[in-house]
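Q: Could you fold this chain for me?
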Amino acid sequence: MKNLGIKITGCIIAASVSLMATGPRVTASMFTDVKNEIVAVEAPKLYSMQQSNGGVVFEIVTAALKTQNETATLTTYPIQKMVDYYLTQEKVLGSIGRVKEFSAEDKKGNILLPVSRVQQQDYWILFNVKNADAKTIAKKYMEGITTILNNGQYHAILEKYEGKNSLSAGDIKAFKAQWKKELLKK
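A: Sure. Below is the predicted structure, expressed as structure tokens.
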């Protein structure tokens, strides 16, 4: 009788492992028509589906895209492995995060552009070139971020989340310099 218990337990464990290996399959685009889906690990205040504008970092991305008549939809997940799965297995537009959260495989061949410095951390958007529109939208994002940096909207978004004195003129100048450096690479 003991052997039967061990065999049944072993079968249950083996079955659960093989089921887990298939990876996550549920995404917002399965239930609605999602255009330009951007995925991220849920990070309240920074990028979150719980906030009306998606959080400070996502709001900057959408503001930049809006200046170029583009939109994006944010989908957040509880763990990085799910975000990595959608970047490698699906045709999402991209992902938002810190550079260290993107693997070498994620960065290879994709387009990595800065978004902002918030709470002493730099946040980036990685455009997924498996998405047919990624290169075009990345270019529009670059044009849009330049627009919102120059018209004051970028600073206004950061102040809305971080407070009036969240950024100094030096911070904005440093980000603009970093942004120009990225533009020259492209």
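A (continued): The first strand starts at residue 37 and ends at 41.
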